[in-house]
Amino acid sequence: MARSEPRRTCLGCRAERGKDELLRYVLDPEGAVVPDILAKLPGRGAYTCFCRECVEKAATRKQFARAFKGEVRGATSRDLVNMVVSRLEERIASYLALANKAGKIVSGSDMVMEAMRKKNKIGLAIIAGDVSAEIGDKVTGVAAREGIPCFRILDKDRIGGLLGKGLRSVVAIEAGGFVPPLVKELQRYGNFLDGGAVDEQDPRV
Hints:
7 helices; disordered C terminus
């Protein structure tokens, strides 16, 4: 008989969910609350839903102190939200850097649009959050026609830095092994921020 998935209660909304659906937190050696994005850090865990609203509710209601049975540091809603966002962005950035190192990145709006028009070449497109409306509309239009997931995240300077180049407003990842984990991280980021990363094919993300 298969073992049932362990379930935990969100400190914010009090909903009970499977552990894999929740965001885990632990205390560091100094007693500060830190988000455990990969759910691998040692120690007692506390949980919220993977959304900013639940983190803010848990922090405002002092639920982390109750969960860890004592005073905790760094458990303000602003600190925790900023830490989660930063760590999720680091995850996305690391995948982009790895894909670039493997030669699986196409950058620049014209080159990306050309590559997207080639059947099955591109698996994912990313547009910088500070791209011009004209370029953004052109890229998302091609992505929509070709059925390619397209997200807005980071800025031109950050994307260019990850690729070891100047400003880059648009990048695309070739179809293959880097696409599924990147899409998963982008969706988690967007869900957490309630629109922080927008899938142009599914604005609900």
